[in-house]
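Protein modeling request. Please complete all fields; requests missing the sequence field cannot be processed.
Requester role: graduate student
Desired output: 3D structure, C-alpha cell encoding
Chains: 1
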Amino acid sequence: MRLPATILATYCLLVLPFASSVSAGEDIESLENETPDFDFAAFMEREEVALWLLRYDRVAWQTTELVMQEPPEVIERLTPIWFCMEHKGAWHALYGQFDSEKDEYRTVLHYSENSKGFSRSKKALPQAEVNSFARAFHTLDKRLRELLGGKGVKFNTYVRRLDDRQIEVWALPAWQEDGQLAFGTEYRAVVDGEGRGVLEDAPPTGILKKGTPSLEMDWIIPNEESDVPSVGDIFTTMLVHDSVARAGIRNREYLSAYVDISEAGAFRWVHIHRDHDVDTAIEAMRRLHTEGRLQKTAEKDE
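Delivered output (302 residues):
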C-alpha cells in the first residue's frame, strides 16, 4: 500500500499546536479560554520525526515498485540492505550490496526523485555517505534480527543523518502479506557518524498489534500508559487516516485525533481530554476553522 498523497499535501498545516477540551453543550468561548495541560512540545517533537518517516516511507514504496519491474538477473544481485536518503533537496533510493571485506556499498539500482516521481539514475552520490548508511545497517543487522526476528511480522527500517552527524535508525511494523497493518511497537538506535559503533540502543517499546483498516471503522490506538503518543503511533495514525472513519490515539488523559477540520482534506491533530465529548470538540474545531478563528486560538496555546 502506498502512502496516501493527502498526507504529504496537508502535513504543513500542523505547524501550530492546538488542543480542544470541551464537553457536550459547551461553547466555542469555553474552548478558547481553557488551558489544557497536554505536552505540546513533546508531541510536536515526535510528530516531526513521524513526518520524516512518512516521507521516507513514500520513497521506499514508490521505488520498491520500480525494483519489481527490473529484470530477474538484476533483482538477484540485491540484498536486504537498501535504504533511502536525501541529498541536495532530493530523495534517492539505493539498492545493492554491502561488501564487508572492502567496507563499501555497491549500488546496483539507484532511483532519484524528479518532477514525475522516481526514475533510474546514474548520478553518483557521495560514496562516504552511502557507505556510512549501509554500514549502520550492517552494524545493527544481528541486533535487529535478535529483537525483531521472532515477532512474526514484517518491519520496515529507516535511516537518516542527525544534526550532530550521528546516524539514526528506526524500525517500525509494516503492512503484512495478509493485508493487515502491524503497529504498536517501535525500535530506535543511534550509531556513530561512520556507522560502526552503536551509541544508543534499547529493546522495542510498546505492544505489537495488527489490524485491517476500513472506512467502516474507527482506528483508535490504545496508549493508556503514556501521556503523549509515541512516534510509531503518530506515524501509523497519519498513514491510515484516509482509509478509516476516524483515526486517533487514546492516551492516559487525552485522545489525540487526526481529523479533517474543514471536511475538505485539511487534516489536523486535535487533543481532547478523555472526560469530554469527542464529537463536540471536533465540531467546535470545525466552527473555529470556518469562522477564521482557528489560527488565533492555536497561537494562544503556544
